[in-house]
Write a structure and sequence with these properties.
Elements lengths: L1 E6 L6 H4 L2 H8 L4 E6 L12 E3 L6 E3 L1 H15 L5 E10 L2 H10 L4 E4 L8 H7 L2 E4 L9 H12 L35 E2 L2 E2 L9 H10 L3
Parallel strand pairs: 1-2, 1-6, 5-6, 5-7
Antiparallel strand pairs: 3-4, 8-9
Length: about 220
């Protein structure tokens, strides 16, 4: 799977995508991501990619360099691939929706990360397949939102997580009827006069499973 990302600040992804679980998955070629700096597709002498919006305060990503970047990626992979636009006005993510996106986006896809205010609406009309929001607030730069989406998405690829069964008992999983997880404990058995619940020390799997269901947040 290749994830293509258009951004004004593509370097902002490097640190996160080279760390922890995601970094190890990339090293094992479970997935790959390719970054494209939007400014390289600008015809402006100063490589600007934004302009003033009509009758609105702030700057907007211009359609020309963004269209040029998208078409370049389509030509590079020899086909049109799904295009995602991270936006506060998009489809609000939940765990269930992430699972559905994983079923739909099984091969290459492209993510547009905007900056300033928005992107030109004509780009959305012409190219965008999925408009996605991570919550109801506005960010200065949507590389953060794209990182959140990608992290949650990649967890569903086999062998990204060391134990694939851990997905079954994640917060908001289907197994737990989309509720939060039960409380989690580890050693020591007693910490600052507080003990681990006895049922978790019992090795009685039936009672433990019942305790988990009874203690969902």
């Amino acid at each position: 799977m290749n994830i293509h990302i258009i951004s004004i600040f593509p370097e902002s992804f490097n640190s996160y995508f080279s760390s922890s679980i995601i970094g190890r998955a990339k090293e094992r070629w479970i997935f790959n991501f390719e970054l494209y700096k939007l400014n390289y597709f600008s015809d402006d002498n100063f490589k600007r990619v934004d302009d003033k919006a009509y009758w609105m305060h702030g700057q907007v990503i211009s359609p020309k360099p963004l269209s040029k970047a998208i078409e370049y990626i389509f030509e590079k992979v020899w086909k049109k691939i799904p295009v995602i636009y991270m936006s506060p006005g998009g489809d609000l993510l939940t765990q269930e929706k992430i699972e559905n996106y994983y079923k739909k986006l099984s091969n290459d896809f492209l993510i547009i990360c905007w900056h300033y205010e928005w992107i030109d609406k004509r780009i959305i009309d012409l190219y965008v397949d999925y408009e996605i929001s991570i919550w109801e607030y506005v960010l200065t730069s949507w590389e953060l939102a794209a990182t959140v989406f990608i992290d949650s998405f990649l967890r569903h690829i086999p062998w990204v997580l060391w134990n694939n069964k851990s997905l079954e008992e994640d917060s908001f999983s289907e197994k737990f009827d989309r509720q939060k997880e039960y409380p989690i404990y580890t050693r020591p058995e007693i910490f600052m006069w507080k003990s681990v619940p006895k049922v978790l020390l019992s090795w009685n799997h039936k009672e433990i499973q019942q305790w988990k269901k009874n203690n969902l947040f």
